[in-house]
Every structure is written in C-alpha cells, then in structure tokens.
C-alpha cells in the first residue's frame, strides 16, 4: 500500500471521529500535493481543528472525539504545546499533528476554506498555499517550497489572492523563480 493511501485512510478514520462529535476540521500537508499529482509517496499530514465558543481550545475537542478509540492514541507535548494523534492500525504507525484554526490556517473551516477530496476535508488551494507559505517562512524547507511552487503553478487561477500574504509571497518568489510566472498571472488577474 502506498504511503499516500495509508495517510488517506488515517485521515478518513480521524475525520469520521471528529465529524461524529461535530468538530470542524481540515487536513493539509504534502499529502494534498501527492493527491493533486497522483503520487504514491507523501509523508506529511496536519489536521487543523476549529475552536468554538464553548470549547476555545481545539486540543480538548480532539481528545474527546478520540476517547475510546482503539485505533488512535494521543501524545500531548506540554513543553511545546503540540498535540499529535497516532493511527496505530498500520505499521509503522501514522502521526498527524493537530493544529488550532486561526494560528496554522483559517479561523473558520467552512465551504470557503475547505474542499473535499475522496470525501475527506482538505484546505482549499488558496488556504493550502497560505498555510504552506507560513510554514516555509518559519522552516525554510525546500520540500515546502516545492509544494507551494507546484500548486501555485498548476492552480493559480483557483487562488484567492486576498488570502495570500503578498510580502511573504514576494520574498518566496525571489528564491523560487519557477513560481514567478504564476504569481505574476495571479496578480494580473486581480489587477495588481
């Protein structure tokens, strides 16, 4: 079984548990790029979870949704304030980092920020580029840059430029000229 299929199965199982509890969520990471390119290999998946007024921090909502599941285990790093969900149905197990909405992605996960692929909620193209650009600005990893370049180059016409931080993208383009023509076309489309 390909790594991408394994990640999708883990995402589908986690999504089902979260949906049952009414928890809005969306996945992203290089698994989305792998789906768009029909590539069997990917190794990164995040799950953004929306907070509510009654449960302001999404980590609690995830812990409640997973409680009692034999397939998932939770690891909370209090030192770094990170939550990881591990899917144990496969060997090796699959780890998914849980991220709070608003910090690592859009504040609200709805029809404008989420799209479905294979029945699984993923960030839209615009939100994916925004999230990956944010990660790239922090980590500076080439694999994040490749995801941004590929998705922007292929799907620039589906990007809402209002969701992309212009200064960050301009800085990205300086070192990644392969995405420059798509960025220019997108700016032209919006009259910039």
TrEMBL record:
<protein>
    <submittedName>
        <fullName>Uncharacterized protein</fullName>
    </submittedName>
</protein>
């Amino acid at each position: 079984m390909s790594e991408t299929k394994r990640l999708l199965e883990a995402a589908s199982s986690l999504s089902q548990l979260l949906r049952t509890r009414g928890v809005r969520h969306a996945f992203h990471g290089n698994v989305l790029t792998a789906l768009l390119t029909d590539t069997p290999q990917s190794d990164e998946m995040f799950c953004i979870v929306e907070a509510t007024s009654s449960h302001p921090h999404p980590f609690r909502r995830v812990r409640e949704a997973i409680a009692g599941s034999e397939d998932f285990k939770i690891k909370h790093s209090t030192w770094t304030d990170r939550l990881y969900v591990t899917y144990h149905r496969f060997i090796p197990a699959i780890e998914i980092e849980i991220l709070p909405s608003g910090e690592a992605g859009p504040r609200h996960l709805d029809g404008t920020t989420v799209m479905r692929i294979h029945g699984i909620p993923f960030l839209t193209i615009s939100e994916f580029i925004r999230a990956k650009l944010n990660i790239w600005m922090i980590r500076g990893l080439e694999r994040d840059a490749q995801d941004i370049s590929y998705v922007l180059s292929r799907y620039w016409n589906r990007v809402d430029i209002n969701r992309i931080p212009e200064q960050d993208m301009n800085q990205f383009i300086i070192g990644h000229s392969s995405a420059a023509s798509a960025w220019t076309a997108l700016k032209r489309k919006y009259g910039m």
